[in-house]
Design goal:
mainly beta; Porin; 16-stranded antiparallel barrel; 4 helices
Length: 397
Amino acid sequence: MKKSAIALAVALGTVSFHSVAEIRINGFASIIGGQTLDSDDTLHGYDNDFDMENRSLFALQLSADLQESLTATAQIVGRGQNDFDAEFEWAYLTYAISDSSQISAGKMRIPFYRYSDFLDVGYAYRWVKPPQSVYNLSFSTYNGLSYIHNSTLGEWESTVQLALGSVDDDIVAITYSDEAELNNTVGINWTLNRDWFSVRAAYFATKASISAANSPELSGLLAGLTGYGLTQQADDIAVDKDDAYFAAIGISIDYNDILFDVEYTQFDVDNSILAKQQQYYASLGYRIDAWTLHLTYEHNEDKNESDEFNSVPLTITAPNGVTIPVTTDPTNPNAPYLRTLVNSTLANARAESETWSIGARYDFHPSAAFKIELNQFDNTLTDQKVELLSFGIDLVF
């Protein structure tokens, strides 16, 4: 669905459907520019050339009241990094079972994080983008069902959401674009609010399959292991219907003019080449009239467990009793061992970083805010530091 989707949505908004449904159209946009401060550095899609497209977007959300407790919602987003080609990111139906519960079906946002529901609505939070060490999964929607129940527990407001569905999309995993399927995805998130304090926990489990077709190195390694009959070792590297989970916990404080947020997340795919990810951030903000100043610290660590190394034997014994070295070429005594290649691949998946960010938000209009932010990313394994300056305007309409 290209730019014509926007035109179609606007055209629909001009047609009267009062006999069937009441149509409401809302929108939001972000016009963001940024660049790294050193000529050879890249970070979050930016380099040293000033870029106004990478994080900019324009979106429309259509909601139709179909009466008798049924509504339809669609969200159309055009992103600068995709030349503003518009696509339907949300499209679902919602049925209100009661005043406190509802069920939805269709394409929706996966509620991984605190800010998942309005991840693209920059006006809803103080950063230019939520902390990327945590908000780093390259997919954000799923096809399936969602059930939400609101209640009170003493003086606490409780919201429980159950999700069931699947993801079939290209994601960043082995390379920057891999075909992925997350099947039988089931999850829950629970949020408790009381006055100025909120706490949230989430857990999702799925069966993950990610194609290695775009990685000749990994495809060749899997073929080599299989050729030696080491199917178990190949299965322990490939991502094929493997159990995976995502877990998160966070708290949020909005007390007078003081803001504080912290989120911790984990993501792991069992028996695969992908490293276990652990990350968190803590952010402190302070409101001064129309200004909000904030300071954020992020930490990310990806690594495979030690027992995943050295799983490939150095030699195997043929049926005739001959010992065969498990290398890329058993006829070449100098060929590298597959164990070495597997260990190297596992080790290269390791990553560790810290990020400090300082920024400001200025609400110069009831529906618009100007933001500016400086991020310093530190790769603690290589001691490489990258600084990124970004600024722009977020608005809702």
